[in-house]
Amino acid sequence: MPSALDQIKIDTALGNRMLANEGVLDAFGHVSMRHPTNPNRYFLSRSRAPELVEPGDVLEYDLDSNPVKKTDQRLYAERVIHGEIYKARPDVMAVVHHHAMAMMPFCISGVELQPVMHLGAVIGHKVPMWDQYDEFGDTNLLLVKPEEGASLARSLGQAPLVLMLGQGASVVGSSIQELVFRAIYSCRNAECQFAAQMMGKVVPLRPGEVDKSSQINAMPTATFRTWEYWSVRLEKSGGGLPRSGKKPVGTRAKRAIVARKTTKKTKSKGRKR
Fold first, then answer.
1. Nearby residues of 71 by Cβ (< 8 Å), 6 or more positions away
2. pTM score, two decimals?
3. Which of 22, 51, 54, 78 is an active site residue?
4. Is 209 considered catalytic here?
5. What is the distance between the alpha carbons of residues 80 and 146, in angstroms, rounded to a whole number?
6. Do 202 and 130 share a structural domain?
7. Tell me, what CATH number does 55's domain have?
């Protein structure tokens, strides 16, 4: 039975892998979890593609985003996103920063992202937009300074997510399960809104519908049900956490290996004929 902190590391790794498997994360982006008993600490992987993150990659940080224990590991450059949000939002227990293609049109077009379906109520009434240029002028769009992270956290306010102009989105949750739920269904909502706009007028949810749907969507019966579902999908894809003693291989790499083995078998059969 893993300890509470070991379970945090396992869940952080699983959150990364699930969101990669569902297309929210790719080679970039990162998931963190707040320490369960020390609110001034959080857990985040070393710098690694999300679908490859293992529990052993997950390190402990203070809220200034410095690793608690000295390490020679390469760290995420944008980890201040997590530290500064945790500073500003005591209610937040998990954070993800991503650049999902479903969300990017709303980060560059000026079109407002709106809750348009029941599960899309996870985005709240109004999604704030943060423009790094407003305070920091021309940058490389990476968010690496504490003051940039603090600015983003101010823009987030009490919202469940914030869009970042030309960059992506940062999403928060009261648990890792709620975070994954919100990250995935906010992208599904964006896809739905984008498709509906191609057809004509979009009718968003009414404020009361957003409130009542959000309450249902945040219930553990919903967030744990989807966590279990996405966990099974992850395992079926071959991207689950590696078993003890096995060398970890990412989902896409595993598919490539299977494809190569299939090709070799086909060629071998051809030679026998």
1. 46, 59
2. 0.89
3. 78
4. no
5. 6
6. yes
7. 3.40.225.10
